[in-house]
Design goal:
Number of strands: 5
Mean pLDDT: 87
Number of helices: 7
Oligomer: single chain
């Protein structure tokens, strides 16, 4: 199955690796539902060859900036409990400043993944938060969405790369799957598709 994955999605994994090594702040991954965006990103992060802290937030309708902050704070605590990172004492008592302080003082590279970004309202607090976080030295932000266009791309202070997952047609799918399963009947391959 590894060869099928590589043949179908290998160039996307390579594009994600290139982004992680670039000067760009944000990667916007778009594509229709079920196209493999989240799975390919997970594979790319696992195979990038370096220790990366992963802050993942799955959005929903009515997501607000505090949802992101709580999710990020929980992830910081989880990494601290695993002794992957040490959370320095923050002189600030405000919750927002704590999360900001932790991101600012990260010793490891970090990726902030915002999944289902299309469900997030076009809210200046959320946009400003994501742009702010993407400005930290060790932090990359990856937005996953079903929408082809990224509303943050109008901001001149950030550099955004874009990967669009195209739908694979049945002939392409069959071309990659059939050699891996030579004894499988065509109706099974059609069901897999």
């Amino acid at each position: 199955m590894g060869d099928i994955f590589s043949n179908l999605y290998g160039y996307y994994v390579e594009d994600i690796h290139n982004f992680l090594n670039s000067d760009s702040n944000i990667l916007y991954i778009s594509g229709f539902s079920g196209s493999g965006k989240s799975s390919v990103l997970k594979k790319a992060l696992e195979s990038c060859g370096k220790e990366i802290l992963n802050f993942h937030h799955l959005c929903f309708e009515k997501t607000v900036a505090d949802d992101f902050l709580l999710s990020f704070y929980d992830t910081f605590r989880m990494y601290a409990l695993k002794q992957t990172i040490t959370l320095s004492k923050n002189p600030e008592e405000e919750f927002v400043q704590k999360v900001n302080f932790y991101f600012k003082n990260l010793e490891f590279p970090a990726v902030v993944v915002i999944d289902n970004f299309e469900t997030v309202p076009d809210d200046s607090d959320i946009n400003d938060l994501l742009i702010h976080i993407s400005g930290f030295e060790n932090v990359k932000v990856i937005l996953i969405s079903k929408n082809r266009t990224c509303r943050l791309s109008q901001n001149p202070t950030i550099s955004i790369e874009h990967i669009n997952f195209e739908k694979i047609n049945f002939e392409q799918f069959k071309k990659f799957v059939s050699p891996e399963f030579p004894n499988v009947q065509m109706n099974v391959i059609e069901k897999l598709y």
